[in-house]
Amino acid sequence: KGLRSPQESVHDLSPIESFRIPKILFCFVKEELRELREEPTDPQAQQEIINSIEEVYFSNDSFDIVKYELERLPPVLSLQELEEYRDKLKQQQAAVSKKVADLILEKQPAYVQELERVTSLQAGLQLAAVICTNGRRHLNIAKEGFTQTSLGLLANQRKRQLLIGLLKSLRTIKTLQRTDVRLSEMLEEEDYPGAIQLCLECQKAASTFKHYSCISELNSKLQDTLEQIEEQLDVALSKICKNFDVGHYTKVQQAYRLLGKTQTAMDQLHMHFTQAIHNTVFQVVLGYVELCAGNTDTKFQKLQYKDLCTHITSDSYIPCLADLCKALWEVMLSYYRTMQWHENHDQDEAATVSSDGSNVIGSEENSFDRSYVKKKLEHGLSRIWQDVQLKVKTYLLGTDLSNFKYDDFIFVLDVISRLMQVGEEFCGSKSEVLQESIRKQSVNYFKTYHRTRLEELRMFLENETWELCPVKSSFSILQLHEFKFMEQSRSPSVSPSKQPASAISTSLTLFEQYCNGGNPFEIQADSKDDETEDVLASNGYESDEQEKSAYQEYDSDSDVPEELKRDYVDEQTGDAPVKSVSRETLRSRKRSDYNLNKVNAPILTNTTLNVIRLVGKYMQMMNILKPIAFDVIHFMSQLFDYYLYAVYTFFGRNDTFESTGLGLSSSRLRTTLNRIQESLIDL
Predict the structure, then answer these.
(1) Rounded to whole angstroms, how far apart are CA atoms 459 and 654?
(2) How far apart are CA 299 and CA 303, in angstroms?
(3) How would you label 298-314 residue by residue, b for 16+ Cβ within 10 Å and e otherwise?
(4) What is the pLDDT of residues 490-502, one digit of tens each?
(5) Distance from the Cα of residue 242 to its chain's centroid
(6) DSSP label at 310?
(7) Where are the domains of the chain?
């Protein structure tokens, strides 16, 4: 029990002793071989003996061989059987020993060679141990004398570099923290592209230092600042709608491009223009309503625009309309200049891309944005003009214009006509909405105006003395104030009502004329309108000295027959009436005779001049109100019909004229007079 296995014993030996064990084993094998040589050996027989060994003896499992053999013994022991079994085991043992000895002898050269290698390896290991011992000793010396100090310096240098990097990062973070102050300054200076560029760079830098805890808060702050910049940028974009500034708009567009929101900016711009139109007209009308109300009551601010227009008084209607059109002109001019800016900008960009085609993808994106902006702007023309028409229409129909003075109503027509001209130049629109609204007001006004003029004409005719109105021999209807519009050329300073119908502006459009300043709706006093009409002769005669002398010669009584000095002479008998004629009457008749003898002087009365003036006013309305021109010319024909009927009534019903057979009462004349009586006089 106290013995150990050979393997366990080998582990306790030193390496040198373990190398000696095979030598002992080799000697033992030699002795065994010596014994085995004495016995005859047959390899085949030896192999059969080895094969007859039970498998359990080759097992790696440790087991008690003695116990195993004892358990195999039969219950009744036989000495002869035991000896036979013992001899069998010995033969098996001898066969195994011989086999092992043969194998050992066979591997002996390799064993000797490997043993030499092990010995050499042992010597090398011993040398390595000596070298390591010396190295450690020298390392300790270096550590104490040099390495510790040098490595300390290197460590400090590395720490210094790290601290420098940290300091740079801290300075960058400090700069980022102070960026909001600079951003506020740039926003106050309206440097929107610079502010956005700075904010985007700060966000990029913040993402680099995101491993610092303070940067997370800074990131959110920068994002809020960027949103604030976008809000201020939207406010700046809305200012374009009323007062376009090239530099300001350029900055805004550059800012939106940096944000990558060019299309969004165009959508917002159209919303601002629509809102600007609404706010502009509301503020203008509200200002006049509050001014006329004479108090600061805020109830008007809560009214709708349509209801607010009904509170405009007649006195403030025209100034309010003029200011309304001025304000809307500013909005449309801003839109026109916006389109001009984009056209010029697109041309510059196209030229730049053609000269440098390196960035194909970027140029394609810019081309798509330009195409979108162009289509949006072109579509917005009709949309904005439609909004303008609706606002002006609401204002026009909010007040009854039937009781306006003629000049005031003509001014309203002038303004609306000019506004329709603006609309045609703006988007090529025929302004059907404005035409319909002004047509309604014009028909309503003209019916009232015509009725009043007919009453005035009736009063003129009832009080007409039918005396000759002394006018110059060079008299022409174009000299009358009402016909001045037929002579004046069409120009921006002349209202459409004062312009000839055939006049066509072949020069610049209104937008081109007023692009850099001015307003086509400015009220300009026309000095020609204030000139007095120089159509009447002085004291009833021409001022020319030659004509005066001629009249004086004609006025002499020396060559006048006596019978002609009488008031009346019977053509049949030549007798004068009993009643005497005063000299003044005779002089008045001589004047009339003189004027009748003047070849160039037209025969006019005060009523005739009045009818001519009315015809001029009606023609002026026809020039402006082309949609109701047919109604106007119909009413104008009624003026002539009424005048004709009155003249016939006063002078044409005499039986003397009926008997002359001059055809004054022809069937055609009778038909005309009957028509006038039925359609005009009886009504």
Answers:
(1) 23
(2) 7
(3) eebeebebeebbebbee
(4) 444 444 444 444 3
(5) 14
(6) T
(7) 36-162, 190-260, 262-351+364-422
